[in-house]
Known about the structure:
Elements: E1 2-4, E2 12-14, H1 24-32, E3 43-44, H2 52-59, E4 66-74, E5 77-84, H3 91-98, E6 103-105, H4 108-115, E7 132-136, E8 145-148, E9 154-158, H5 160-167, E10 169-172
Parallel strand pairs: 4-8, 5-7, 7-10
Antiparallel strand pairs: 1-2, 2-3, 3-9, 4-5, 4-6, 8-9
Amino acid sequence: MCRTRNASVPFMTTSDAGTSGAHPRFAEALDALGLRELHGRVRRFPDATRTAAEAAAAIGCELSQICKSLVFAADGVPVLVLMDGASRVDVELVRRELGAEKVTRAKADVVRETTGYAIGGVPPFGHRTATRVLADRSLLDHDVVWAAAGTPYTVFPMEPKALIAHAGGTLVDVRERAA
């Protein structure tokens, strides 16, 4: 295990391959998806990175380089929306995209039941149940994005097209636009 501190990145722990700091369910998902090399790229921070702003500050990256994994309920059915950290989801656009009558933010118990993770640590894939995934095109604006690795203290980097593919996501435009 390697500990790092520099001017742009606060104290963090980097795991060696095979000893990922990721949530066990997420670590198993990495193995099942043939992404074992990502174990060594998982970063664990001493302070929580539950919000996109906390994660960006801890990593030392732009807020828009954070990939938020947000669970909504479309007519009562959970759906995962992947969104860049600087943007908000337009629920009406999600509703239209899904052809749903009603879309709301899922409650914390639904998020945990659906994904197997607590809010603030939900990764883009490796969930308890198969869920429809929508990924906003804004994620493609970067070469690398950072996402939760199953806990509020862990993140991992990945090329956005690969992340969306592993999540089984459909590219959409569901970002809230400035009025």
